[in-house]
Structures are given as C-alpha cells and as structure tokens.
DNA sequence: ATGAAAGCGCTAACAC
DNA sequence: GTGTTAGCGCTTTCAT
C-alpha cells in the first residue's frame, strides 16, 4: 500500500504553514525576502509533508532548465569514467545533468531527440559518428560541445585529448628505453585514429627514426589488435604503440601465445588507461586522458555558450600523460 | 550565430497554420478529432518551424510523466548491458527512461533524489547498498523495482537472476566433466554472494560431494580472486567456481603464473558473462544472465504498479544459463 | 471538426 | 516581510 496517492504541492505546504505560496516558494529556493521564523516553520512543514519541488513546473515557469544533456554510449568504458567527472563539474557550475544513452539498438539521433524535448540548455556529445552537418543543425538550436571527436564547424565546441601528443609520449618513452624499431597499430576509421597515427609518425621522424616507421591497420576492438599481432609476427619490431587499450590487449595475447615475451621481446603501449589496462595480468603501459580536466573544460564551454560569454578558443585540447606499467622495458635485441 | 533564440511553441505553429492551439495539440499527439487536410497542414508547418513539443509543459498539464527513473552505477559493466535492454522494454511499454548515475563521488541517495524531483512514475534501482528501510521510504512515495539485489519488503518489487541456480549449473557442468574436488570462491558481502555460495553447497551435496565442499572467502574485485588463488595453491582442487568474472580473472592469472594450466590442472567458471569473459585470452566459461528477460520483467513490474494492476508474484527470479568457453575441461588428476 | 478557456505547479513582478 | 497576480507551454473539457 503506497501513500504517494497525490503529490504534495507548494499550495499544500502554504496552507499547512498558514502562509502564501509565494512565500513558500521564496523559502524553498533560499531566496532573500522571508523572515527567519517563517522560514523555519515553512521548512519544517515541508519536511513533515515530504514536499519535493516539481522541477518541471519550476523550470517551465522560470524559462530555464539549468539542465545539460549528455549523450554517451553504454558500450564505451571510457564514457562512464567521463560521466563521473561531468557530474562533478556540472554540479559545481550549478547545472544538472540529464543523460541519454546510445545503445546497440538506440541511435544518436534518438538520444539527442530526447534531450531536445527535455529542453536542456546545451548538449554534450561523447564521440559518436554524427556527421558535421547534422551536428550543425543541432548546434543551430542550442550550444553543442563535442567530446572525443572533432567537428569542422565554428558553432560546435570540441573538447578532447591531444591525440598527437599522446603518441609522442608513447614514442618518447620507448625511445628513451632504447627502442628504435617501433611499430604502430592504428584505429582504422575510429575518431582520433588519424591523429594518433600522425603523432606516431611525427615523433618517429623527430627522433630520426623515419626509416623504422611502420603502421599496421587496426581498429578499436580486441580482434583488431590480435590480427595486427599476427602480421607483426613475421618480423617483430622491438616495440609497438597501439591505438587503444582493448586492441593492445588482443595484441598482447597473440604475441605471448606465439612465444614472444612482453616486455622481453616486445614492449607494448596502449591508450586510454581504461580499467582493463590496470588488471594485474595485463598491467599495460598506456596513455591516460585527463578525465577531470576534460569534464571541467566541457562544462565550462557549455556554460559559457549558454550564458552568452563565449570567450577563449573554440577547441580545447587537453594533454594526456604517460602511465608506465609493466609492458614496456629495454629492448633485448 | 545560432538561431535558437526563442523556442517554437504550439501557439507559433497555430498562428502560422491559421488554426487554434488546441487543434495543433490534437494533431501533434495524433489524437482523434482533426480533419485530414488540417492535420497535414499543421504537421508541415510544425516541421518547417522546427517545432518540438516541450515535454515539461506537456507532462505538467497531463499530470503524468510516463517517465521511468533508472539508477545505475557507472562502474559496473553489467549495468550498461542492462540499460540497453531497459530502453527497449520501456519504449515498447510507452515509457521514457530518465537516467541517474551513481559515481564514485555521487551516491545513491543523490541519484534517487534527482529522479524524484523529475517526477518519474517509478524507479528502477540497479544493485546498490541502500538499506531496506530506506528503500521502503522511497517505495512509500512511488513504485520501486530493485534489480540485482534482494529486498525484504512487500512494497518493493525485485527482479533478479537466480543465483542459486547459476551455481548449480556451474557445479553440474564441472561434475559432468568428471570433477569432484570443486572449490568455490565467494563474493564476500556483495549482494548475491550468499545465494551463489549456498547454491554451490547445495549442488555439491546433491551430487554426493559434500565432503569436497570448500569455500574460499573472496569478493567482487580482481584482487579478491588473486588472493583466493594464492590460498588455493597449497592444495589445488581440480575445479573452481568463482563469484564473478572479474574475480575469476584475477584467480586465473595467479594460477597460471604459478605454473598451473587452465583447464589442464584446474577448471574455472565465472559468473555474469561480462565482456571481460569474452576476451580471447580469457575466454572464460561463465554463467550468463538473461539481460533482455530481466529488463522486460522489471519494466513489466514497474508499469503494473503504476497502472494499478499489481498481479503476479512480487519477486521475479530469472534463470541464468551456462556459457561454456575454454577454461573448463576434464580433470587430469 | 474546430476554438475558447481553464489550469497543471511553480516563479517573478509588484503591491501591501 | 508577505501576499497578490499573472503567466510559462501545454492538455483538456466544453461549446460552437
């Protein structure tokens, strides 16, 4: 038998406390203009009645929702880490988050649509494959911040990790260990792959290792890394930088199954510092993205656009950092 | 320059189409009571103007939100799989989902609070450590469906996997392979651990293997499995059933590092069929939960409570299924 | 088949 | 310091 037969409204609290609804509204919002005695009594009555403000009505009336929509993909572990940071940053800025998930059976289009209907004031998009034109049509309605992807539009803010720099860090680390024959397994057509690949190539050239540049086509999945490892087996380099941790895991597995020791024969560096890379038996050296930094800057951009003070650069690129674990060491050959 | 200066309302569409707002409302909802010609014209104008109904206003007026709140934990991979199923089930029942995440810095209390304020009509809770009494106080306000946990309350529906049966399936599988000395690494104080442990013990007794019952204290994390493996090393059984996949992964790692082959020397069975267990180099035999079944039943329970037709049992227990991979085989000893 | 009008629960002017 | 009033954008009788 549940008691939630009728929701308690401001009017109920007002009647019970013997004041007007406006007065209760003031008290509930903590706005100035109410006596201490009244304030206390109203709060007490609200508490007793189990009153909860109706955010819909409130937002409808005030014209603002102070709501930030977030589109994330349930399949991507990194998105979940980022959500954590985003909640903190949004809360600090006085905004609430409203989440809309992309699932194998629920596209970005749908996810964004729901958010628009919720009248959030800006949308933060995690990755995704939405085309620039589509992004632009959303951006024409409300501020859009795209994370972990690029967007060739002046009206879309982008906040992401510096992929090229991450690749530089990986290569620098391996070179400092004494490696020269360093290969790269890329991410295929996934967002960020081109930048990471170019970063690898540039870093190799910077170290005078242009002749050792070797890019193996890969992808974002474990199998992609496994396939790449098989191609590498013929003539193994002493080190490999891989597009992401998952692919690196697949590569590690195939390498070891074929009798190569890591890091004895081959050193491996992943990307993203996902929980997978931290597992004891994987313990992968990787490039970690600054999650809280990314989150804070994304919220900052969104709020600036909402509140009409668009300052600073349109694109925010955050430097990643190297996380050394046990899959890298000095070359034995 | 974005054009979303002002939101387009029903009135705008009505004015543009030369009809009343009520008429537009009818058309937009697809309600009966509008001529075909009018309907088409209104739809065309709405499209041109880029009109989007304001869900807040709509719900405020109609008194219903048709919104189901979901509390999930960003850290739990299984929760994400379940979200996918839940979106489908909710959509089919004519409800929308509103997500509220639990993060390392955002508790269940906060997550539920936001949902209450959003005036959703029921709450679906994934796991969590909320106490029964607290759950009850929420349930006194609106229907609550708890998933992947139990609740000793008549007013809280629970929908979860049959943990005891899962353990039976694991033991049956191992016994059919010829194992007798089968140990169990439990989940400590985590929800479901007691049931899985009891199921293991009962299955062992059922097979006349009571004398081989051996329970090692564990937990939900990888390290818990690793620690348990170290204790097992002294006198290894021929098979182990583990509380979950993550713990099983830690156990596998320690076993192999100590020269034991899997499944040659020891067979291992996990629980949950998470993406981790599917990784090529882990390829763990495990117990899979019926995600779509769980999701469908949870939505069903929630909707029944909302619409006032509470029929059927309060608790829904769904049978899991064995997923055989490569960590189990016939015993060599 | 369509329109006028009331009001969902709340906030924001303004008056008292 | 507190109450009155007028809506926010929409749905929903009830007339027409």
Automatic annotation (TrEMBL), chains A, B:
Does the keyword section mention Transcription?
Answer: yes
What organism does the UniProt record list as the source? Actinoplanes subglobosus
Name assigned to this protein: LacI family DNA-binding transcriptional regulator
UniProt-listed CDD domains:
HTH_LacI (cd01392), PBP1_LacI_sugar_binding-like (cd06267)
Recall the GO molecular function terms of this protein's record: DNA binding
Keywords, comma-separated and alphabetical: DNA-binding, Transcription, Transcription regulation
Q: Which domain of life is it from?
A: Bacteria
Which InterPro entries does UniProt cross-reference here?
Answer: HTH_LacI, LacI/GalR-like_sensor, Lambda_DNA-bd_dom_sf, Peripla_BP_I
The signal sequence is none
Q: Per the database record, which ranges form the HTH lacI-type domain? A: 8-62
């Amino acid at each position: 038998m549940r008691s939630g037969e009728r929701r308690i409204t401001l009017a109920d609290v007002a009647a019970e406390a013997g004041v007007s609804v406006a007065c209760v509204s003031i008290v509930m919002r903590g706005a100035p203009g109410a006596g201490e005695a009244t304030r206390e009594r109203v709060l007490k009555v609200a508490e007793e009645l189990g009153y909860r403000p109706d955010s819909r009505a409130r937002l409808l009336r005030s014209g603002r929702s102070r709501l930030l929509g977030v589109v994330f993909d349930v399949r991507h572990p990194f998105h979940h880490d980022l959500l954590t940071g985003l909640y903190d940053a949004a809360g600090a800025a006085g905004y609430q988050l409203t989440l809309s998930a992309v699932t194998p059976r629920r596209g970005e289009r749908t996810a964004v649509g729901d958010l628009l209907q919720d009248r959030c004031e800006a949308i933060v998009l995690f990755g995704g494959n939405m085309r620039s034109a589509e992004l632009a049509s959303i951006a024409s309605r409300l501020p859009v911040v795209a994370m972990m992807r690029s967007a060739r539009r002046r009206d879309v803010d982008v906040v992401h990790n510096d992929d090229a720099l991450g690749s530089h860090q990986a290569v620098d680390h391996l070179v400092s260990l004494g490696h020269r024959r360093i290969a790269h397994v890329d991410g295929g057509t996934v967002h960020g792959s081109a930048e990471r690949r170019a970063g690898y190539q540039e870093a190799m050239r910077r170290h005078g290792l242009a002749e050792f540049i070797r890019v193996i086509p890969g992808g974002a999945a474990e199998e992609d890394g496994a396939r790449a490892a098989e191609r590498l087996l013929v003539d193994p380099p002493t080190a490999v930088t891989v597009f992401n941790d998952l692919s690196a895991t697949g590569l590690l597995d195939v390498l070891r199954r074929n009798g190569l020791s890591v890091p004895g024969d081959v050193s491996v560096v992943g990307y993203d510092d996902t929980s997978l890379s931290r597992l004891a038996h994987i313990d992968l050296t990787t490039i970690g993205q600054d999650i809280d930094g990314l989150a804070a800057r994304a919220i900052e951009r969104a709020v600036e656009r909402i509140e009409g003070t668009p300052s600073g650069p349109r694109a925010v690129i955050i430097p990643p950092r190297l996380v050394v674990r046990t899959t890298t060491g000095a070359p034995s050959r």
